[in-house]
Specification:
By secondary structure, the chain is an alpha/beta fold. Helix content is 30%, strand content 11%. The strands form four sheets. The protein has a ten-stranded mixed β-sheet with strand order 9-8-5-4-10-1-11-12-2-13, with helices on both faces.
């Protein structure tokens, strides 16, 4: 029987293995083992249908190669479609490059000698509507601290470091002193310039200028317009450093800006700030502008139109001072108007701060706080400040977080997108989350200062070397002198007091100066002497080993911080010499040692001109209790007693010792004080009548090495011999010092 071949039935015979393999590849590409090649469900069904049709109509014997080629092409097309479909899906998780954070424009307005009671939201008698509005719409800083005098505050703002780490512990930089910021330390404008900012400064510098490397344009500012010294006439721009030593002080970059006499400085500085805002493109580069106003520092000068609203004030000094505060308010109004007009405001941060407390004798007021400018009482170090910005997350509130002027350095560097940790030895903290969001402040303590050169007048005038109290002799002369103390100098009276303290019951409220010299004592030579060379101790990093005088071996067993340590029977050796002028704030507690300065509570000047009538008003109403004659330790709970009226050093000796241990801890990293004598070459008469740098850069190394100690204030550090037989010497000396003080302060 002959078998006849039947034609193959299309669609019934199974496809050959090669076709099955190719179809499996295509299906896998359609279904997608990888999430990046997986197709949507509808597309996968269409692919499978098309594939089946191809397999049905192509003969395995005849068109195998064609089918394989078609399936390969289809696989490639499906792979591309799958990738296209994946890119079109909006909900897929994929990484995109982050957008660069927008850098805000930073406007820092620094006033001079504006007290706690010298702003409208603290004292309604002062008319400051612009400042009040900006503070009310921003964040008012009510637990904010500065330094008691100009140079230390400004140095800590610019460097972010305590003054014990810059060598500026003792006083301001006088116009004739060859001193300025340490050359090795980076500054806030330098760090902001590295972050891409345009940096400009207008106003008062007061951080030294004896060589060009000390000028603002050499410390990170692209431009500078203002004065270099501490006190300048508001119209003539004359600055004096004693009788007969006066010169012109207004500079544009590194040259003298002659021809500006007759223009009020607050108005002139504001005009320059507005010119900078007008000429700069806010969309091109971020801007940092430091507007350091001379107001409201003496001399008390202001246009008459600003005095008229305060015509009812009886005290003339207070009337002029209030008028100067109004000029500051108008200056801030003009600057904020320029920020809005030229497109800065929506991406700007405005910071307003004073540099120290007010001087009540010249019209200022720190009421109800204790003390004044130049002291470590709250009236000298608690400052008025606020932050105004559309970038604040929580606005219209008052912040009680503990803040310090050193915090602006790391805060503004971080806000600008920089890394503050690249600056070694910073004492400040990044407090922007605290200000903007209301978080807890990272700062828990503040070292107000340690000044080993300042000795209380009572120890050199009221007490003799061998017996009890004596009448003060030559008090005015002794008060002005600064001596190099011998490290082992002791008096019989101090030894006698020490033996009495061991045999009798202790009086906790009075820490006598008979304690053995410990950390921070003024007997330490390394804390008294200045640097012997330009690259020596003052330029050493605070992260390196401390000087030998502050080593742990000399500090003794009480050098480290102790929590809750309480003295037992008799006074043990304190961890700190209480005769050294120092002040520290830890949490709610504040400790002052040595001579903190004049500590009266001065009420507002509501009586006529002579200060004696209102100066004694507080004393006559509530006379202070009698205190031990040599008290040099005070302890206050600032949170519960912000006016410092209740001394708790006797009730809480454990807290006293704990805070003394913290002073000893900070003193280990302190650099020697650098306070050189006046240089006669700084006389403006030698420089066409202007205050300008007088030391050439090539001899700077040799010049700094000249000063090996602390000198008396005077020309070249030479002491003048007195003639004791002259009957008018004392009277002449008195009027000479009075005239010097009046000329230097321009009262």
């Amino acid at each position: 029987m002959v078998e006849t071949k039947r034609p193959p039935q299309r669609g019934c015979a199974p496809p050959p293995p090669d076709v099955l393999h190719i179809s499996a590849v295509v299906l896998r590409s359609a279904a997608g083992p990888s999430p990046q090649l997986r197709l949507p469900g509808v597309v996968a069904e269409e692919v499978v249908t098309l594939l089946l049709l191809l397999l049905l109509f192509f003969s395995p014997e005849v068109e195998m190669q064609a089918a394989a080629a078609a399936l390969a092409v289809l696989s490639v097309v499906l792979g591309l479609d799958g990738l296209r479909a994946h890119r079109s899906e909006p909900n897929q998780n994929h990484t995109e490059p982050k957008k660069k954070k927008t850098q805000p424009h930073i406007i820092f307005i620094l006033t001079d000698d504006q007290g706690f009671n010298d702003i409208g939201y603290h004292n309604p008698t002062l008319k400051t509507p612009t400042l009040d509005k900006l503070a009310a719409e921003g964040v008012t800083l009510e637990n904010y601290y500065v330094q008691p005098i100009c140079t230390p505050s400004r140095s800590q703002l610019i460097t972010g470091r305590y003054q014990i780490h810059t060598g500026l512990q003792h006083s301001i930089i006088r116009p004739s002193q060859p001193s300025c910021l340490p050359a090795h330390m980076d500054t806030l404008p330098e760090r902001l310039r590295q972050a891409g900012y345009a940096t400009h400064m207008v106003g008062k510098w007061h951080l030294g200028f004896y060589r060009k490397a000390c000028l603002p344009t050499r410390k990170g500012f692209d431009s500078f317009f203002g004065s270099l010294t501490g006190s300048v006439d508001y119209y003539s721009y004359g600055s004096c450093d004693g009788p007969g030593l006066c010169g012109y002080d207004l500079h544009d970059d590194e040259g003298v800006a002659w021809g500006q006499e007759g223009k009020y400085s607050t108005t002139l500085f504001t005009q320059r700030a507005r010119k900078i805002l007008e000429s700069h493109d806010p969309a091109d580069r971020p801007l940092f502008l430091l507007l350091s106003l001379q107001a409201v520092h003496t001399p008390l000068q202001t246009p008459k139109s600003y005095i008229y609203p305060y015509r009812d004030m009886a005290n003339v000094a207070r009337r002029k001072f209030a008028a100067m505060v109004s000029t500051v308010d108008e200056a801030v109004r003009n600057v904020t108007y320029a920020l809005r007009k030229h497109g800065y405001y929506r991406n700007s941060v405005i910071i307003y701060s004073t540099d120290n407390g007010a001087q009540p004798f010249t019209g200022g007021s720190n009421w109800p706080l204790r003390g004044r400018k130049g002291t470590y009482w709250e009236g000298g170090v608690r400052g008025v400040a606020f932050v105004h910005s559309p970038l604040l997350r929580r606005r219209r509130r008052v912040s009680k977080a503990l803040l310090h002027i050193t915090d602006w350095f790391p805060t503004l560097v971080a806000l600008a997108g920089g890394n503050a940790s690249e600056s070694r030895g910073l004492d400040g903290f990044d407090v922007w989350p605290t200000i903007s969001e209301g978080r807890e402040s990272p700062r828990q303590e503040i070292l107000h200062n340690i000044d080993p050169l300042h000795k209380p007048p009572a120890q050199t005038t009221k007490w003799g070397a061998a017996s009890g109290p004596k009448k003060p002799k030559k008090k005015k002369i002794q008060k002005k002198r600064i001596h190099k103390l011998k490290p082992k100098q002791k008096s019989a009276f101090r030894l006698k007091r020490l033996h009495q303290a061991q045999n009798q019951s202790p009086r906790p409220k009075s820490y006598s100066s008979g304690a053995p010299p410990a950390a921070g004592t003024s007997h330490s030579r390394s804390q008294i002497q200045s640097r012997p060379g330009s690259k020596s101790r003052r330029n050493a990093s605070r992260n390196q080993d401390p000087p030998a005088s502050a080593s742990k071996a000399q500090l003794g067993p009480h050098s480290g911080p102790r929590n809750g340590s309480r003295p037992t029977a008799g006074w043990p050796q304190p961890p700190w010499d209480p005769s050294v002028q120092a002040a520290i704030r830890v949490g709610d507690w504040k400790l002052l040692t040595g001579d903190p300065g004049h500590g009266d509570w001065v009420p507002p000047q509501v009586l006529p001109t002579l200060p004696g009538r209102w100066w004694n008003l507080e004393r006559s109403l509530s006379p202070p209790p009698e205190e031990p004659p040599l008290q040099n330790v005070w302890l206050f709970n600032i949170t519960a007693d912000p006016c410092e009226r209740r001394d708790l050093s006797g009730q809480r000796p454990d807290v006293v010792r704990r805070l003394m241990a913290r002073l000893a801890h900070y003193n280990q990293s302190a650099v020697p004080v650098y306070f050189p004598p006046d240089d006669p070459r700084a006389d403006p008469a030698r420089h066409a009548g202007a205050w300008v740098p007088w030391v050439e850069e090539e001899v700077e190394e040799r010049e700094e090495g000249r000063y090996h100690g602390v000198y008396k204030k005077g020309r070249g550090g030479k002491k003048k011999r007195k003639n004791p037989r002259c009957p008018l010497c004392k009277l002449r000396s008195f009027f000479l010092k009075l005239n010097t003080g009046m000329m230097s302060n321009r009262i």
